[in-house]
Every structure is written in C-alpha cells, then in structure tokens.
Amino acid sequence: MQSSHTQIEERTFQVNGLSIVAVCHGDANGIPVLALHGWLDNAASFSRLAPLLTDCHTVAIDMPGQGLTSHRFPQGSYNVWDDLIDLLALADQLGWRRFHVLAHSRGAMIATLLASAAPERIYSLSLLDGILPKPVLAKDCVDQLQRFVTDFRRPSRQSSKIYASFDDALKARCLTAGMTEITARPIVERALELSSLGYRWRHDTRVMAASAFKLTQEHLDAVMQSLRVPTLLLLAEHGVAQLLGDMLQWLLQFPIVQQRNVGGSHHFHLEPDAAGHIAEQVLLHITSHHDAANRTN
C-alpha cells in the first residue's frame, strides 16, 4: 500500500487543565480517527500507519503524562478510565460528533471502555494487540489499593535515569519492551528530553504506578455485553495473545469483535514491512462502517 502526500500538523489542545499535544495526519475534512497509543509510548506510535490511512483525518495524541502532553496534577492518577472524559472533551474541541478510534495496547483498553461508556460517539474501533486487561479477583482489591498508595506516595516522581546518548536510551527501550531499533526509534525520539546531564524520559513516573483498582471478570463481562461498536482486533503472533490466553476464546462469544492474527511483535504497526498490510485492514474497517453509519443517518 503506497502513501499519498499526507498533511502532517502538530497541535496542542487545552483540555480539563491539560495541554494535550497531537500529531494530525491528513485533511481536516477527512474521516475522523482518534489514535491512542500504548503504555509509555506516544503519538509517534502511529507515525508509519497514520499516513497510509487515506481519506482519514487521524489525530494521534500523546496521552496525559506521556510524550509532549502535560502531566496530571499532583492528585491525579493514570487509571485506564481517567482518560475517558478528556478524550470526549478533545473530540468536542475538534468538532467531532462521532469518530472512529484506532488504538494500540493500553490505548486499546481505554478505547474499549470509551466505546462502552459513550457508544453514541464512536463509529468503530480498530484495536491493535489489545482490548481489555486480564481480570483480577475481587479478593485481591486491598493488595492492589495498597500498591497504589505506596507508589503514589514515593517522594520522587521524576525519572532519575540519565543516558549519556540517544543510542543508549534507544537500546534500553528495545531491551525492556522487546522492540527492534527500527520500531522503537520514532517513539524514543519523542519520548526523550535532553538536560544538562544527558537524556532522560519525559513521561510522568506515576504512569508506571499501580492502578488503584483493576477489573474483575464480572466487570469485563458487563463491558463486552454492552459493546455495540463494530470492533476489529488485530493480534500479533508474539504479543498480548500469549498473555491473554483463555480471554481470546472468551471474546469469541461477542460477534461485535472480529479477531484476526497478523503475525509479528506487539509493535507490529511500526514494522515497515507490515504497516501497509495493517493499514489496508484498518482502512477497510473504518470506511465500511463510516459509510454504513452515514447511510442510516
């Protein structure tokens, strides 16, 4: 799949006290697509895929606390549901009554919750190697809450790790995330800042803290039973499928979700050889459901 000439613009939105930075691809009059990256990634996660989504206006944001977007206030947290109100407010600023969501990993979990909570706003979901977190047992909620309190009360919330060079930071990210340098480079370039001491990560270290609560199987059942938004789930061969296990079989009972295996690693959408194939599937899903929704309006 070949990329046509694509307009790219970086914009900043003031949303609920946050400065949310986005990389916008394509004509502003195109099909509206909000792109949500994964944990410790940023808008550059869609730098190879978004230009291939012809006829779309893809707004890839740096999620709060990551990339160039501001950190949450001192009392703020980064639970997966904390972003929902901000995302809807951002869509309001864009003038989007309804929009499609393209999301990867943790961003896909947020997207699924958003579609369940505000189905009237979402045309479709295109999820890349993620959909919902693994369920936990309700009896473990106190242990989870204790981890949350401990993590958020740590005195230093700024990353103390300093790298002497960009390449050192790139290699560290590849090692911890299981990425190749070619897939990690766009994300790392946006994730780093240069200080007088060297390179360090921009992200709020609270992003790495334990969540206050996690969802049980009963919660996940309720979310999926309420989901009415057509959903495409593309799964990597060497990605979350190995972690989700029986959840993938459980998801088969929900025909609103179309599962496909695409091979590759967790960040397959950043692999140059795979981006075109992924874009074709995502674009077909978006355009078909956009056209169908507009025919019924």
Q: Please, could you describe this protein's structure?
A:
This protein has helices at residues 84-94, 106-117, 141-152, 166-177, 181-191, 217-226, 241-244, 246-251, 272-296; strands spanning 8-15, 18-25, 31-36, 56-61, 99-104, 122-128, 192-194, 199-201, 231-235, 257-261. By secondary structure, the protein is α/β, with parallel strands linked by helices. The protein has a single domain, classed as 3-Layer(aba) Sandwich (Rossmann fold). The strands form two sheets. It has an eight-stranded mixed sheet with strand order 1-2-4-3-5-6-9-10, sandwiched between helices. A two-stranded antiparallel sheet has the order 7-8. The longest helix has 25 residues, at 272-296.
Largest sheet: 8 strands, mixed
Shape: globular
Please give the CATH class.
Alpha Beta
CATH superfamily grouping: Alpha/Beta hydrolase fold, catalytic domain
How many domains comprise the coordinates? Answer: 1
Q: Beta-strand level of the residues, as a percent range? A: 15-25%
CATH T-level fold name: Rossmann fold
Number of strands: 10
Intertermini distance:
31 Å
